[in-house]
Amino acid sequence: MPIFGRTPKKCFDEFRDAIAPLLTKCISLTAHLRLIRVNDFERLLTIGEHGLKLDTVFGTLYLLVLQRLNVVEDKKHGYRLQTLAYAYRLQGTASRTESKPLLRWEYEKHQPRDTWPRNHMHAAATLSQNESELDLNKLHLPTGWVTLEEVIRFAIHELGHAPPVGDQWWELLVESERRFYTDFSGKGYS
Fold first, then answer.
1. CB-hemisphere CA count at 13 Å for 171?
2. How large is the average pLDDT for residues 73-98?
3. What's the pTM?
4. What is the mean pLDDT of the chain?
């Protein structure tokens, strides 16, 4: 079931309250989550002014998180939260304007169906093929829906980031995923 609330603010607050503990306990104790008001029915989620610093086996990297959320009226519950877009960027600097992140996962709900995939990723890599080069930063490689939990799992397991809560990160992550799939998306968790 999606996030519902009697007011738009209640929907946004419930979302913030679900995400904030995951970020502070699994990525950084100082993670500062902001929901910037666009209008009464839309918010922009950002994490930290310069993203979240990750100390990895590959050196310092930064995770920048951006989500565009809105609420729509729901006759039964008042309002329902939905994600309009997300962008998760893994990069070597804290700059929000860096043009070539190492990896970026993106989704745009209103992406026209006759263009690239709504859910996709980019990589700062080039593949050589038959005397040509494929720039993976310019291609939109199709993905499924990528949750913030999956990106955090990648940062910890694959990049070697040490979560502030130590070994408890796994339980927190699984509980957050379960809550997202069971309580918010209605798709069930397996």
1. 4
2. 90
3. 0.90
4. 90
